[in-house]
Amino acid sequence: MRNHYTFHLTLVVLFIFILFIPIGINAQQETSFQYVSPKPNSIMVSNETNIILRNANTLQESTVIRSLISVVGSESGPHTGDFLLTDDEQTIVFNPHKPFAYNEVVNVSVQRGIKTLADIEVPEYVFSFKTETEGIIQIYDGVFDEDITIMQNLAMLKLRMEKMCLQIFFRHHL
Predict the structure, then answer these.
(1) b/e sequence 15-52, b meaning 16+ C-beta within 10 Å
(2) Angstrom distance (rounded) from CA 154 to CA 156
(3) pTM (predicted TM-score)
(4) Alpha helices of 29-121 — where are they, by DSSP H?
(5) Residue 102 domain-assigned?
(6) Does residue 157 lie in a domain region?
(7) Are residues 87 and 66 in the same domain?
(8) What is the pLDDT of residues 89-116, one digit of tens each?
(9) Measured in Å, how far apart are the chain's first and last C-alpha atoms?
(10) Does a structural domain hold residue 174?
(11) I need a labelling partner for 95 at 20 to 30 A (CA). Which of 31, 71, 81, 158 fits?
C-alpha cells in the first residue's frame, strides 16, 4: 500500500513540475528582438548573408538610424550597407555593401535609441556569428531542430511527459 501511495505522490509532483517549467524559462529569455538572423552564436553562416532583426512591436521609422546599428567583422572590419524597415514596421534588415570575409566572427551591436510607436526604447542588443570557411558548399534541406524555439521544444516535451504520466496512471487504475 505504501508503494502505491509513493507512486501516486511521485506522479503528482512530476506532473506539477512539468506544468511550471516553461514559466520560469520564459521569464529568463526576454530579449529586445523576437527574431534574429543569423541566429546568435551560429557558425558556418554564408559570407553573403544579410542581418534581420524583428521586434515584437511596431517601430518608429524615424528612430531606426544607421549610427545606432554597427556590424563589424573580425577580418573585414566595419561594414556599411543599406538599412531597411520593412512594411510590417517591426523588422530591420541590413544588407551589407560587400560580403563578409570567410571564417570571421561578425559582431552586431544595436545601441539604445530605436523606439516603438508607444515611445518605448528598444534595449541595447549585441550578438555575433561566424561565417563559413572558404570552399565549403552548404546544402539546406528542410527545417533543422535548432530552428525550433526553445519554448516550442519545451511545449512538445511537456505534452509527451503529460501523455506518459496519464498512460502510467491509467495502467495502474484500469
Answers:
(1) eeebeeeeeeeeeeeeebbeebbbeeebeebebebebb
(2) 5
(3) 0.61
(4) none
(5) yes
(6) no
(7) yes
(8) 999 999 999 999 999 999 999 999 999 9
(9) 17
(10) no
(11) 31
